[in-house]
Amino acid sequence: MSADWLDLNRANWDDRVRVHAGSEFYDLEGFRGGACTLRAFEVEEVGDVDGLDLVHLQCHMGQDTLSWARRGARVTGVDFSAEAIGTARALAEDTGLADRARFVVSDVHTAPEALGGERFDVVYTGIGALVWLPDLTRWARVVADLLTDGGFLYLAEFHPLGELLDDDGLALRGDYFRTGGTTHDYPHTYTDGPALTETLSVEWQHPLGEVVTALAGAGLRVDSLRERENTLFRRYPALEATGDGEYRFPPGHPRLPLMYTLRATKPAAR
Predict the structure, then answer these.
(1) Which parts of the sequence belong to the Methyltransferase domain (predicted)?
(2) 120, burial (CB in 10 Å: exposed 0-12, middle 13-18, buried 19+)
């Protein structure tokens, strides 16, 4: 596949940093003041990370990465956007977490080489990451290469079924088994703030079976796969706020899973 998609997405995400860093959505000042950006279900399902080495793939500006550091982990954030990594490093300094956090500029596919073959207890991938990757088999091999024996991946993602509903949240549209990248030309990001100047991006849809099969093929053991009826945005008008910053369909409305979480372990060598 041509590398054009990578150049387009990197330029798009470099530009997003300008918008995101000043947005109310990301609220960097609130984070500097001690806010945690991890969701409660992530903290519960990952468990105690005190003293563990954690790498966050596709970390963007590093708030989730640094939130794990605040919970006691030694963290490494990896992202292909130098602009995002620069913001993350400054945020680590501002929050007094630079002694337990580092940030590395690297495409996710070359992360093992960029990190010098280092291994980690936890590989964490946050929400909205997989759509930017064309090849999950290669991604899963990267995850396996980064894990220590007995270490685990924790993935939280938007469910691919949730993206198939029409804007009214009632009718299905699109194709769950669509293959190939889709190019978008859109002047805004998902946050508040000014328009982008680098508006082109390429995304891929990955059915749930593709994710699980890629991880199994890389030698990981899937320990849990939880589909969630809640999501983080009011993606459809029918969704109602839950009171804890999430949204779901109201009682009596037909439901589809809107998010999922997955935990997979790299078995110890025999």
Answers:
(1) 58-151
(2) buried
Q: Residues 83-108: pLDDT tens digits?
A: 999 999 999 999 999 999 999 999 99
Q: Which amino acid is at 196?
A: L
State how far the alpha carbon of 55 is from the alpha carbons of 147, 161, 222, in Å. Answer: 9, 28, 19
pLDDT computed for residue 254 by the predictor = 85
Instruction: List, for residues 126-181, the tens digit of each pLDDT value.
Output: 899 999 999 999 999 999 999 999 999 999 999 998 888 877 767 778 889 988 99
Q: Tell me, what's the pLDDT at 2?
A: 46
Considering only CA atoms, which of 122, 102, 123, 105 is closest in space to residue 114? Answer: 105
Which is nearest to 235 in space by CA: 223, 247, 221, 251? 247
Fold (CATH) for 4-265:
Rossmann fold (3.40.50)
The answer to whether residues 256 and 165 touch, using CB atoms and an 8 Å cutoff, is yes
Burial of residue 40, with CB atoms counted within 10 A of its CB: 0-12 exposed, 13-18 middle, 19 or more buried? exposed
Report residue 99: phi and psi, to 5°: -75, -15
Q: In 10 A of CB 4, how many CB atoms?
A: 12
Angle at 190 between CA 184 and CA 194, to 5 degrees: 95
SS3 141: helix
Q: Quick check: 217 pLDDT over 70?
A: yes
Backbone dihedral angles phi then psi of residue 163, each to the nearest 5 degrees: -85, -5
Q: What's the pLDDT at 1? A: 39
Tell which residue, 9, 43, 45, has the closest CA to residue 189: 9
Distance, in Å, from the CA atom of 227 to the CA atom of 157, rounded to the nearest integer, reads: 10
Average pLDDT over residues 230-235: 92
Domain ranges in the chain are 4-265
